[in-house]
Write a structure and sequence with these properties.
It is a single chain. This protein has 283 residues and is mainly alpha-helical. It has a single domain, classed as Orthogonal Bundle (Farnesyl Diphosphate Synthase), CATH 1.10.600. It has 13 helices and no strands. The N and C termini lie far apart (45 Å).
Length: 283
Amino acid sequence: MVWKAYFEIIRPSGCIFISIIVLIGQILTLNCLPNVGIGFPAVLTSFLLTASSFTINDYYDYEIDKVNTPWRTLPSKKMDKNRAIQYGIFLAFIGLMFALFNTFYSSLVALGSYFISIIYIIKGKKFGFLGNLMVSFTIASSFIFGSLSVNNRINSLVLHISIISFFYILGGEIIQSISDAEGDKIADVKSIALVHGYKYASLLASVCYIITAFAGAYFAYYYSKNLETFSPFIILSTILILSYILIPLIKEPNKRTAKETRKKINYIAFLIIIVLLFYSCFR
């Protein structure tokens, strides 16, 4: 059905994921749930702009997706390319309209992040690692957007969580460059995996996750005296879990292991967001 294509192309799970990140930023800043009139416009803005980014991305990635992900909406002919770009622009227009109902600084963050995401889609993706940095920044800045949507200053805890998430996302993007290498080669994308090799990409991703583990333990120690004793345990357990996930990829860096690793990393990211949501609600 036609409506199903409109639903599929925006990748609702990804939009909801970003919206939850924004909500977490709001709750951590206020120490409580935001008033619907204040909190909802920011959550809806993030959902709509993320949906627009996904849709426009699929328009520009049509040739790549025919190789890497032929089951997606456009390669599988569920929606026409011209209709997709029109839909993406419409979502952006509505999202930016809702952004006007947020605070001035949060509106600037929303506009800036969306602008960077569009630059990435059109040009930045071809520059490989620079593109990975752009994606990591736009997603991690969702915490900051949430914080600024309810306050004119960025909450320090939210800022630090945003920094940690930046490295976590960056590691995932580098792993994705391995699984996308076949299609990226066609589009002349200078990804880490294609320029420096699969092994180098897997090792660099591992470094990002190690930074995430140590930064997470440090901030846990910094913000909660109750967690001081557990900081070494947090570091050790995080490294053990990530080692279990990453070692197969380092040993055998190929498309199959990269896809399996990315899937596991995404599961962990989902669990972290759920933990953060509960922590922000009940701390």
